[in-house]
Structure formats: structure tokens, C-alpha cells
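Please produce the structure of this protein holding fe (iii) ion.
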Amino acid sequence: MSPNRQNQLPATNEDTSGPYFPIAFGDPALEDLTRFEVGMVGQATGTPIILRGKILDRHGDLAHGAIMEFWQANAKGVYRTPATKDNPDVENWFHGYGRLRSHTGYYEFRTILPGAVAERAPNITITLFSDGISRVVTQMFFEGNDANADDPILQTVGEDAPKLIARHDGRTAKGEEVYLFNIVMAGDGETPFFDDLES
Amino acid sequence: MTRQGRLLEIGPTDNTSDQRTPRQLLRLIPEEARASFIPVVPARYASNPHEWDMTRVAPDRPRADGVPIEVTGSVKTQSGAPVRHALLEVWSANHYGRYRHVEDMSGLQLDKNHLGLGRVLTDEDGNYRFLAISPGAYLARPDIGRWRPKHIHISVSGGASRLITQMYFPDEPNNQSDPMAILMGDAFERNIGKPFEPANNDLDEAYRFDIVVGGRNATYFE
Ligand SMILES: [Fe+3]
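Below is the modeled complex.
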């Protein structure tokens, strides 16, 4: 982050999304990145996966009504950003951004197994918005990937690393690899969350 | 001194905040991993042309109860650059403090003419505009008599800019006791819409609400 904040405008405060983020704002295409548009030819290359789990609060109860946003590289390990516009490995049918609202606190997100970006293990950034918080951000990894041992995020969290690693749970009849990943928002077993502002 | 991340504060008198706010310090993102934390939201927006007017369910239907207002402003990054073609997703309660959301169990009065949600885009200069019904305050904690002041929820996404915020109204009695306002402290001022005289006499009130996306949601690709 730029250390020179003198000339910067003060940012609008983040605020809680509250419990009533409109379900009507949901977009099926953002809840399943394995196909770009519903009913259209055109899909991303790579291994389709299903990421599923629970969002839990301090009492171990399901945190209902949370909005989850996902951000990841494609199967070749390339993020689709303005900086990679001319990269031949960017795919037309994969933007890497997903969003869903979990009514119950259970979630299921279909996507493509991300490839490894230089110096990093394959990962998905997950942002949570919900009632009671403005936002929290974490990053999840995949069980059994050799690159996990050297990943800077997993190294930063030390003994909490297992809390960021999704467990492989076999595959579906259609061949999608299933990964389980729970997020504990607060209390016992709390998931490590990340930020780039110092206290 | 070792660098440490922030401890998020828990909203006073807010049960959900107590249940969901992490108790550990946030972990600082290592430099090598920073870029991976900045989503770029694709410009694949759903926005129906009539949704800029949330005071009625459709252009040919009557206006909902209450005070029709205009809300307008700019969306900028902290360095002052306009955020063009950003999506604003807006939702608010009706005149009686009731959301149309199926999970709003407050039992407050519904208004069949109230749209109460909508999506608008910022223009070439990063400006936006929408009409809404001035929302009612609602009793968020009946057990302790704590009200949520009038507010409009706004989510902004455009490129690497991402923010969910609320616009509040000036001089509202419940502003002081609101847990989110208390957490914001003096900075709460920035989240209050500034009244101006509406140009259109079809509208009772108008507010300017300029949004600056920044802080930890910095736009890294400027
Ligand atoms: Fe609200």
C-alpha cells in the first residue's frame, strides 16, 4: 500500500450489508464458474470442482445470510486483470470472480481448480460480507498440493495452516472433484482472516 | 516492534456482531501475496433500465407511500479518479421500515408499490443517480429498544473497487446510538447524505452522497 496518503481523499466507511442483501441480485453465472453463461457454449478449461462447506459463528451455529465472493486464477495460473489483458493464457470463458449469497450458512460453489501462480500454491480468495461485520477476507488452499509447504500465506499463519486447507472429499459421478472448506467467523477454531492495514 | 494487523471491533448492542466478529488479530498480507487478494469484478452487470426509480415497482405503476427522494453523487478512488461504469446495488426499507426481503420477519407494514431495490451504473465521469423512498427507521433490537436509523444500503463494484456501505440521513435522532455509527466515530460524518434542493418538483428531498472507495479496498490497477 502506498505510504503517501497525504493527498488522498478519505474513504467512505465500509458498513455492514445487514441481513437483507437482495436475493434478487443473485447471478447464476457467478455461482458456477465451470460454465460461463447458462445454456451457452463456452466454458473454461481445467478440472471442475465443487467447493462446499459451512460458515459458522462464535457458537458453532450456521451464519445465515452471508454473501461470499471468490477470486481465483484460471487453470493455467493466470488472473484475469487489466495487467494480464494481453496474456495468451487468459481465457474468454473464465473471469475468476464468483459471488453467492448463502441463505442457511451452507454453501456450494462450482468452479475450476485454479492453477499455481508463480511462488504461490493454488488458492482461492474468499471475501465474506454479512450482518454484524463489514467484511472479512481469507484465502483457501487444496489438500495434497505439494506447493502448500512453501506458500507465503500458509507460512504466515504457522500452526493455523490446516484451517486454510480444503479437504478433498472424493469426486462426484460426473467427475467433479469435491473439496470441503468450513469458515469459522469467530471463536474456537476461528479461521485466520487477512488485511493489509496495520494496527 | 513487529507489525501486526488490526483487531476488528464488535458493534455495541449488536448480537450478530458479537457472534460473527473475529476475535484474533487480522493477519497482515505478505507482500508476495498481496495482488492475489484484489478481486477484479467483471463488467457483466444485470441492470434493468427502470430500476433507477425505486419509488415504484414499474414505470407504469403508482409511487409508494412516503417521501420520494433523489440520491446522487460520484464514485472516486482515493486518488480522486472517477470509477466509471461501476455497479451500484441499492436496497432500502420502505416508509414503514420494512424490507421486501422474504427474511424480514419484523411484521411492519408492506407497501405493494415499493420497489426498494435496484441497480444503477456510474457514467463516464463516475456519477450516479437514483430515486428512492426515504426509508423508515426500524426497531432492530426490540429487547432493548434500539433502533436502526434511516439508511440506504449501497454496494459498489467496478474493476478492483469494492465497497459495501450505507448512506445515513442528517440530524436523525437514532444516529447517535447506532452500533455502526459508534464504530465509525468522527468518520461517520462521511456516510451522511448532504441535502440539497431537488430540481424536480416531483421529489420532496435530494441528497448528495459522494463515495470514495479506498482504505484496504485500494484500486491497484489505476
Ligand atoms: Fe438495513
